[in-house]
């Protein structure tokens, strides 16, 4: 890095961390888009395009974050690249929560439409994400220790927690609906293959629910408790753990709901 840097000792390695993770996300995006060129063409639903778009936004967000930190290290200011980074970060945040809500509601995989309450939930999450990103931008202009900094930090954490709780609700709705359907079929004769399909769906969405909770708990609670134990030279470890957890979450969800040949357990009814 040279003898002079505007970054602290714990931030010196961040440009490399963000850049290498952006490469990993680019590989994930290319892998997902490459599925359509397989000999046996998989069934691709609209949600898969949104998942691919999310991976692209995440790649761009991390790439411009690495450039931002590079110029911050060299010049001490990065107005232009900060604007680009916050734009991609804003779009990525909105898309991430939207994708989680839509997957959790069963859109594309289980049903071809969203209910009114699910549409309202998505709208609410989008509004919260706008507030969340405004808080992030304001924090970058404030000095730590000032009253306004503490206020916006509290708002940021509150909005983030509300968003995380909100995305769990559609998953709970979907799990409850599948459980009711299975119970209703058990009272009918000859449930057969339909019961097996719903049981497979129920297992998948329960796993997704647990995965989302684990991701939220790890990135919103555990990491910050862990960061409190780090010295000033190793503050980069918190960022590394967050990004590692995030890419594991993305790849696991992507594998669970990946494009594949017509799945007898997860398909839309077509007339």
From TrEMBL:
Report the locations given in the UniProt record: Membrane
Q: How does it sit in the membrane?
A: Multi-pass membrane protein
Q: What is its main location?
A: membrane
Q: Which UniProt keywords apply?
A: Membrane, Signal, Transmembrane, Transmembrane helix
Write down what this protein is called: GOST seven transmembrane domain-containing protein
Instruction: Record the organism.
Output: Fragilariopsis cylindrus CCMP1102
Pfam families assigned to the protein according to its UniProt record, in alphabetical order: GOST_TM
Q: Which GO terms describe its cellular component?
A: Golgi apparatus; membrane
């Amino acid at each position: 890095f040279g003898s002079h840097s505007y970054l602290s000792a714990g931030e010196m390695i961040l440009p490399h961390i963000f850049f290498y993770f952006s490469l990993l996300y680019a590989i994930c995006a290319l892998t997902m888009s490459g599925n359509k060129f397989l000999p046996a063409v998989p069934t691709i639903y609209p949600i898969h395009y949104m998942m691919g778009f999310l991976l692209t936004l995440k790649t761009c967000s991390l790439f411009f974050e690495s450039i931002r930190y590079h110029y911050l290290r060299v010049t001490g200011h990065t107005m232009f690249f900060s604007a680009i980074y916050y734009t991609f970060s804003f779009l990525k945040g909105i898309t991430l929560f939207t994708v989680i809500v839509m997957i959790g509601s069963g859109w594309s995989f289980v049903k071809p439409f969203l209910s009114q309450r699910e549409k309202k939930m998505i709208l609410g999450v989008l509004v919260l994400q706008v507030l969340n990103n405004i808080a992030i931008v304001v924090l970058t202009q404030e000095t730590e220790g000032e009253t306004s900094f503490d206020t916006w930090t509290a708002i940021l954490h509150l909005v983030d927690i509300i968003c995380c709780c909100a995305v769990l609700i559609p998953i709970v709705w979907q799990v409850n609906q599948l459980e009711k359907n299975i119970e209703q079929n058990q009272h009918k004769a000859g449930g057969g293959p339909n019961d097996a399909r719903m049981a497979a769906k129920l297992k998948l969405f329960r796993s997704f629910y647990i995965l989302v909770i684990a991701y939220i708990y790890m990135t919103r609670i555990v990491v910050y408790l862990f960061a409190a134990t780090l010295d000033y030279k190793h503050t980069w470890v918190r960022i590394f753990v967050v990004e590692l957890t995030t890419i594991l979450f993305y790849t696991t969800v992507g594998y669970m709901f990946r494009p594949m040949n017509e799945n007898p357990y997860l398909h839309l009814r077509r007339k």
